[in-house]
Design brief:
elongated, 12 strands, 6-stranded antiparallel beta sheet, Outer membrane efflux proteins (OEP), alpha+beta, two-stranded antiparallel sheet, single chain
């Protein structure tokens, strides 16, 4: 190791620098350097914090003085246009009450040629299964463990290293012959048998340097003809303490611990990505669940519409013997057949919605490739929520994974700027060595000589280097500084995007809640319209083709109103779930404790 460095003249034992003093200095320098920081001036973080706080204030504005509660507007139908006593009858004609009274849906044979079976699943069960078993979640859970290994790898750079070497040398070389008054001494042949064993410990310092302690024993047996040496064989022992330390470029704990800090940030970023995946999975599962509810409710509506159409078509066909034209019968048949088509498509939508939910759940015993059909057991509840706009925005800015990742990106850019600034400095490296030497005719005696401290080498070396113009380092620093500015702007943009997400989610909640009342009123009015037709048909109105055609139209209007109400109710449930996802607290809402699993367990 010493031979690879430039040659420096060793100082003899009689040096004016005592060994104990120099050794104490090296130890003190080493200990002090472990806690040193770079002398470079870093950018003020207080300015950054003020900038970020201003971004939050700009987006949130002043706190609203009161909370807002979504409350349904009073219906304009009940009591004024439709007697309260008739509401129950209309509910039994169409809507949730009518759907609940319908017989169990029969799906017939599945893709395996067997009767389709169903398995009841609650929303809570679906979400918990997705959190535990979803493949995207499982994939995301592994990434933090990988990043944690990167931290260990970066920290391992400062672990002490034990090293050892064993060298066998057999020399047989011609050598210059010494002359004494013209008389040659020796035969000009160098023959030597040499064996060296070295061992030691080396450790990198967080200041950028390294310290090593090495001991070696070399056994030399001189076999040169015509020459005698003493001792022979000779045992030369050394103990060497070396400290190498950069003083400018590469100096400081901040610079040399930067890789650890970057890997820790990468680990935190992976955790936030995993949390984001969990949040999105929970939101997607809830949306898939309610879409399955909507698909099944829509199937019941279309089944009821078809049943009504078949009854009306039957009457028209029977009246074809009297006063119904063939075109009118054909029109009724076409409309009923279209209802059959819609029913078949609606049945397929249920199957697809079930498969989508099964994919998200990935539950054992309920594979996507299986033909078991998920049957949702929960019913949508159309209750208003209470919220404070400023609180919702603030909650989102505190909890959204994207914002935490953006802050980590700022920290990464700050670290890289600090490194680039340090690399602009000249290279000025210090190397100090203290070496104790011993020589005798045996292993034990040679090491005993070391304790006498008769032969000690001191080596002090300074190396300087600096590129002329230093253009590469300057360009790298400018790039790093601009990247840090870019990361701050990226955080501002992330805040803006999160704010927009929350506002969009709130608008969706408001819109779909506002639609609950009107769509129910529209369904009740359409049901009253059809009920009036049916009453006339039963008591006063003749079943003319025109009247029956009007009845088919009223049936379709009622079904359309039912479908609109179903979609409004389900969209409201999904909008509420999306709002909590936009706030970053979808896990807390579902009472899911966030923890990063260890894939190695």
């Amino acid at each position: 190791m010493h031979d690879s460095r430039p040659s420096v003249t060793a100082m003899p034992t009689r040096s004016v620098i005592p060994a104990a003093v120099l050794l104490a200095c090296i130890a003190a320098i080493t200990a002090s350097l472990q806690g040193c920081k770079s002398p470079l001036k870093t950018a003020s973080e207080a300015e950054l914090r003020r900038s970020l706080q201003s971004v939050v204030h700009d987006q949130v504005g002043e706190r609203l003085p009161r909370d807002l509660t979504l409350t349904p507007e009073p219906s304009g139908l009940e009591g004024e246009f439709i007697p309260q006593s008739r509401i129950g009858e209309l509910e039994r004609m169409a809507g949730p009450v009518a759907n609940a009274a319908m017989p169990v849906i029969e799906f017939g044979a599945n893709l395996q040629g067997e009767e389709t079976r169903t398995v009841p699943v609650s929303l809570r069960e679906a979400i918990l299964s997705a959190v535990e078993n979803n493949l995207s979640v499982q994939i995301g859970a592994i990434t933090p463990a990988i990043r944690e290994s990167d931290i260990t790898r970066a920290e391992a750079r400062f672990d002490a290293v034990f090293f050892s070497s064993l060298i066998f040398t057999k020399l047989d070389e011609p050598a210059p012959t010494a002359l004494i008054r013209g008389t040659p001494i020796g035969l000009g042949i160098l023959q030597r048998d040499e064996r060296q064993l070295s061992t030691g410990i080396r450790k990198n310092l967080i200041t950028g340097g390294n310290v090593s302690l090495t001991t070696s024993i070399t056994r030399t047996e001189d076999e040169s003809p015509g020459r005698e040496t003493t001792p022979d064989p000779a045992y030369a022992s050394t103990v060497e303490l070396v400290l190498e330390q950069p003083l400018l470029r590469g100096f400081g704990s901040e610079e040399n611990l930067s890789e650890i800090r970057l890997n820790r940030n990468a680990h935190r970023r992976a955790i936030e990505e995993y949390r984001s995946t969990l949040l999105q999975t929970v939101s997607d599962t809830e949306a898939a669940y309610w879409n399955l509810v909507a698909a099944r409710q829509s199937l019941l509506v279309r089944q009821r519409l078809l049943d009504r159409g078949l009854d009306t078509k039957k009457v028209l066909v029977e009246r074809g013997k009297y006063d119904t034209e063939q075109a009118q019968i054909s029109d009724a048949i076409a409309r009923v057949q279209n209802r059959q088509v819609d029913l078949r498509r609606s049945r397929d939508e249920v199957l697809r919605a079930s498969d989508r939910l099964k994919q998200l759940m990935n539950a054992p015993g309920l594979p996507v490739g299986g033909e078991m059909l998920v049957e949702p057991v929960d019913v949508a509840v159309s209750e208003g929520i209470t919220f404070n706009y400023a609180d919702i925005i603030s909650t989102a800015l505190q909890n959204r994974p994207e914002l935490r990742q953006a802050l980590l990106a700022i920290d990464d850019a700050s670290i890289r700027q600090m490194l680039a600034e340090n690399l602009r400095l000249p290279a000025l490296n210090l190397s100090t060595t203290v070496r104790w030497n011993g020589l005798d005719n045996s292993f034990e005696d040679s090491y005993n000589r070391l304790g006498e401290q008769d032969f000690i080498d001191y080596i002090l070396q300074l190396r300087f280097e600096h590129p002329i113009g230093n253009r590469e380092a300057q360009a790298n620093y400018r790039s790093a500084r601009l990247m840090r500015v870019q990361s701050v702007l990226g955080y501002r943009q992330a805040v803006q995007n999160v704010t927009l997400d929350v506002k969009t989610a709130l608008h969706d909640v408001n819109l779909n809640f506002d639609l609950l009342g009107p769509t129910r009123d529209a369904r009740l009015a359409a049901a009253e319209n059809l009920r009036t037709i049916e009453v006339k048909e039963e008591f006063t109105q003749a079943r003319t083709p025109e009247f029956l055609n009007l009845k088919l139209q009223r049936q379709e209007l009622l079904a359309a109103a039912e479908l609109e109400e179903i979609r409004a109710v389900v969209n409201y449930q999904i909008a509420v779930a999306n709002l909590y996802n936009a706030m970053g607290i979808g896990l807390e809402r579902n009472q899911i404790k966030f923890a990063v699993p260890d894939p190695g367990q």
